[in-house]
Amino acid sequence: MNYISTRGDNTTKRFCDILLEGLAPDGGLYLPEKYPQVDAVTLKRWSTLRYDELAYEILSLFIDDIPPEDLKDIVKNTYTKEVFGTEEITPVKSLTQNLYIEELSNGPTLAFKDMALQLLGNLFEYELKRKGKILNILGATSGDTGSAAEYAMRGKSGISVFMLSPKDRMSPFQQAQMYSLQDENIHNIVIEGVFDDCQDMVKAVSNDLDFKQKYNIGTVNSINWARIVAQVVYYFYGYFQVTKGTLSPVNFAVPSGNFGNICAGHVARMMGLPIKHLILATNENDVLDEFFKTGTYRVRKGGETYETSSPSMDISKASNFERFVFDLLGRDGERTKDLFGAGLSKNGGFTLSPEDFNKIKEYGFISGKSTHTDRLNTIKNIWEKYNRLIDTHTADAMKVALEYNYREVPTIVLETAQPAKFAETIEEAVGISPEVPEKLRELENLPKKFIIMPVNVEKIKNYIEEKALK
Ligand SMILES: *Cc1c(COP(=O)(O)O)cnc(C)c1O
C-alpha cells in the first residue's frame, strides 16, 4: 500500500514512512493511493471477529511494511479489556428499535481519542525501536487531546512528551487527569497564559529547525493518518454488532470538529461497508454543517469561534476536511491545492461549483447542528426516555440523528465521551451529577507533577534541552 499527498505530489510513501510525519512536504495530507475493497464474503467472515482480530484484518490492508506477526501483537496489546474496560472494546447499546449508541469512550481518558492514540503509542514505540531513533513529542492542549496523548505515550521507551497547557483554564478533572501522571517521560508544562500562547510557543520551537532536528522534536496531531485508520475499525465493529451478519445498511451519527472521526467513516464507506448516511453534527461552531448544506467552506476567525459546552468540537477550521474534498474532486491534487493552499488563507474559504456540490450525495453525507439548548433538551430527553446519560458531544450527534427518520435504517450514534467529563452541563440538564468511574474517583486527590513557566520561548527551549531524551 502506497500513500500520496492530497496536493498532487505523487512521490509514494509506505505506512511507516508517514507514521511519524505530519503534513506531506507539499503541505497536503496523506491518503492511500486507493482504498482497499472489502467484498460481501469478507464482511461476513469479519462479522464475528473480536475487536483486536478485526483491527488486525483492517489495519493489515493499509500497513504492509510491518511483519504480520508484529502487527498482530501490537494490535492485541492495544485493544485489551485492561485498557478499554470491556471485552467488546466499543460496546454497542440499543436505546430503542433502530437507535443505537456505540461507546468509544471507555479508554483511559474517557474520550474517543484513546481509540486511535493508544494504538499510535504502541506503533511509535515499535517503529522508533526498529529505526534506532528517539522522539520528543511537543504539544499544546486545552484539555482532551493532551491527556489522551500522555496516556498513550506514558512509560513508552524512546519517547518523551512535553505538553504545554494554560494555567487555570482547564477543568479540575482535566487537570487531575494530566498532572497526576508520575511517569518520568511525561512533562507537564503549565503556562502562565492562554491556550493560544501555548500553541504559539509550540510553533516557535518547531520553526527553529536546528533545534527541532537536534532534539528530535515531533508532534501527535489530528491529521496523522495512523489515527484515521485506527478509527476505521470501530465503524466496521459497530456495524457488525447491529446487523449481525445480514449486510443491511446502517447510518452513523458523528459529533464532529476536526473531521477526523467522520473521515474514518468515509474511508470505511469507500472500502465497501454498507453505510447509508454519515450524519455529521456540529455545535454552534458550524463550519462543516454550513459546508454540507451550501457548498461553501468558510474558515472562522478567532472572534467567531465560540466556547461551547461541547468544547472538543470548538474549531474554526477542520484539519482533516481536505481529505474528503480530495476524494470529492475525483482526487485532483491540483484543484485541491488551489482550494486549500495559499488560496484558503487569502480568501478565507471557497465555494464548490454546483456540479461538485451535487456529488456530495454520492458520498452519503448529511449534516446538522446543535446548540446549548438543544444539548440540554437532548440529554434530558434521552435520560427520561431510556434512562441513559450521554455527554454533551454525543448529545449533539443524537440531536441531529433524531431529526432524520432513524427508524427506517438502524442509526448508530457514536458516543465520544463519558458524561462524567462534562458534569456541569449534565447537572444543568437533568439535575443530577453523573457517576464518576471508579478508576478516576481518586484522581483529584493524587499528587500532581508539573512545572509552571511564563510565556517565554527561550525558557521552554532550555527546559527541553535539559529534559529531552538524547
Ligand atoms: C475530538 C472530539 C470530537 C471531535 O472529533 P473530530 O475527529 O475532531 O471530528 C468529538 N467529541 C469528543 C469528546 C472529542 O474529544
At a glance:
The chain has helices at 15-19, 40-46, 51-62, 68-78, 81-84, 113-131, 144-153, 172-179, 195-207, 209-214, 225-243, 260-270, 287-294, 321-328, 333-340, 342-347, 354-359, 372-386, 392-403, 423-430, 438-441, 457-467; strands spanning 3-5, 30-32, 92-96, 99-103, 135-140, 159-166, 186-191, 217-218, 250-255, 275-282, 296-298, 349-351, 365-369, 411-415, 451-453. The protein is of the alpha/beta class and 470 residues long. The strands form four sheets. A six-stranded mixed sheet has the order 3-4-14-9-10-13, with helices on both faces. Strands 8-5-6-7-15 form a five-stranded parallel sheet, with helices on both faces.
Report what the structure shows.
The structure is a single chain. The protein is α/β, with parallel strands linked by helices and 470 residues long. The protein has a domain at 84-110 and 225-430: Rossmann fold (3-Layer(aba) Sandwich). The protein contains 22 helices and 15 strands. A six-stranded mixed beta sheet has the order 3-4-14-9-10-13, with helices on both faces. α3 crosses α4. The protein is globular, with a radius of gyration of 21 Å. The model has no long low-confidence stretch (mean pLDDT 94). Pyridoxal-5'-phosphate (PLP) binds next to α12.
